[in-house]
Amino acid sequence: MGFIWGGIFLNPSILNFIQTRSNIIIEKCFLRAIRLTGECPMLSRYKAVFFDVGGTLLRVHPSVGEVYAMHARSFGFRGSGDELDERFRRVWEESGGVESLGNQSNEAAERRFWHDIVFRVFKPYGGLCNFENYFERVYTAFCGKDHWRIFDDVVDSCIFDKLKQEGIVLGVISNWDSRLHTILESTGLAEHFDFILASAEVGSTKPDGKIFAEALKQSGVMPEDACHIGDDPYADVHGAETVGMDAILIDRKGRHKKDSFTIARSFMELL
pLDDT digits over 157-194, tens only? Predict the structure, then answer.
């Protein structure tokens, strides 16, 4: 048995689908309203809250390897994104990651670093024709919003608006090169923060205490009045704790035991 609406016959399966979708939309709107006016029990007592970026607020879309492969097709590459993902992980570990930049905070040093990474990723495949042009294309591609996605739970939580309403200073502490500012601006996240610290610019990478100390200095609060949120137990949690700050580990995949750290499975649990 169905239902006639506006002269159109709707069978039960369509009615169920519409009702389900309507309930989901209503629930999201209701929760959003509550979160904007409610409190953040885990964070309200702090005067400053700092956030990691990669793996915490943003993820690469669809993946580093897929982005590399997508832009490499017109330069003769015929392999898969999965292959490049695996190759990138290996090269990244061998290079020491962004930490290897040390205190080199100029764009030329960052370009040399990434040029070497990308070149080594494609080396087993015989390289790419016109590699220099390819590198410029992919290096620029990661500056924009097309290859970045904000995690859904970050958006749904409205956490930045809520913390701002409580007068809490918000900052970014991330192991990243200077493109971090452009990326956060293009994704619409930059406007939420009072300051943004990229490790390559500070000359200190997490878990080193210098970058956390700089965040405390810029926020004007004592360590016991600040909390750092990130997805890496060593870089984020251990790093923050070494300077006397509290830390919360974002563990969306449930890889860690809750008795080991203060853990939130999503940003929803911070509200």
Answer: 999 999 999 999 999 999 999 999 999 999 999 999 99
Q: What is the pTM for the complete model shown?
A: 0.84
**pLDDT at 80 > cutoff 60:** yes
- Domains of the chain from N-terminus onward: 1-37 (no CATH), 39-58+148-270 (3.40.50.1000), 63-141 (1.10.150.720)
Q: Which residue has the higher pLDDT, 48 or 41?
A: 48
> Each residue of 192-214: b (16+ CB within 10 Å) or e?
bbeebbbbbbbebbbbbbebbbb
Strands lying side by side in the sheet with 195-198: 195-198, 169-174, 48-51, 226-230, 246-250, 263-264
